UniProtKB/TrEMBL annotation:
Parts of the chain that traverse the membrane: 23-40, 46-66, 78-99, 133-153, 174-191
The keyword Membrane appears for this protein: yes
Pfam families reported in the protein's UniProt record: FA_desaturase (PF00487)
Organism: Gimesia fumaroli
Protein name, as recorded: Fatty acid desaturase
Entry keyword set: Membrane, Transmembrane, Transmembrane helix
Domain of life the protein comes from: Bacteria
Amino acid sequence: MSVTHYTAKEICDLETKSTTPRFLHSLFGSAAILALAFQWPSSIWYYQVGLTLIAAYSMFCWSSCFHETSHQGICGKPWVSIWLGRAIGTMLFVSYTAYREAHIRHHAYLNKPGDWELWPYSDPKTSLTFRRIFCWLELPFGFFTSPFVYARLCFSRNTPVKKPEIMKAMRMEYAVMAIVWALILGTIAWFSLWKPFIVAWIIPHWVASVIQTFRKFTEHLGMQSYDPLLGTRTVIGSNLITRICTYINFDIFVHGPHHRHPKIAHNKLVEKMDNYQNDNPDTKYPVFTTYMSAMKHTLPALWKPGVGMNVGAPAPKKEKWLGADNFVTDVAREILSDRDVSNAHRAS
């Protein structure tokens, strides 16, 4: 298990940011799950739809928290992120270590063939037909496709993970996951609780996976550049709803600066993006003020799903550090070839 190494200043930023209030959604989400399980206060359809949406959005927020744990940035203590990540990953059918390894490469090789998290969209060996089919299946069935994408790092013969201790950690997490879910499903079967389980867990989880897939596509699908600030869509909300949603999702919507600076405290991402825009007024960044406008910009990419070379980018040059196996302070400076980074960003 690799550990993200933060500087004293980065740890200070992690410790002083506000984290606990970002979990407030879980109170409403847990209450909605219980209400669905007990069909309270009523089984009338509009109550059920409303409660399902609340539960689903809370589950989606937990997936954003899972992302934060992969960076080990929940607080200044890595073990908190690791064990919280393992707990969340078990419920999402995703090994925490597999997700972290994929996400490290996602930052290091954004939109490149080595970006395993964006497979198959980043892989120039995949056909457009295959990517279309996978994309259209992923929208309604992200519940299955996301665990499959991350499991490839553990079970594929071509996995980029070569360290035996990391492979062992992934296999152990999948084994524990199998045991936990065998116990859960066995208990449900023993007490004949299939209906409340489907209504209170399976359906909200499915809806949450659809939301998560839209988030993933909105941030990445159709983006050509290897430059983190130009190769991702960033949303900085101009209205209260977008700002609240950004806050409880650990500012993951502010995606460009997060991709360039994966160790920066999430509450500093908007400030970082503002600085880049002020320093480079002639650069047109893919920054949106509402999530709907970012989704609208994404829609054409659903017909030609891909990133990087699969949407017309030239083949990337050789990275400065080919063995990227952990998060760095500045991806553009420490990993990417200068040719793959905008001139305006090389000295930032």
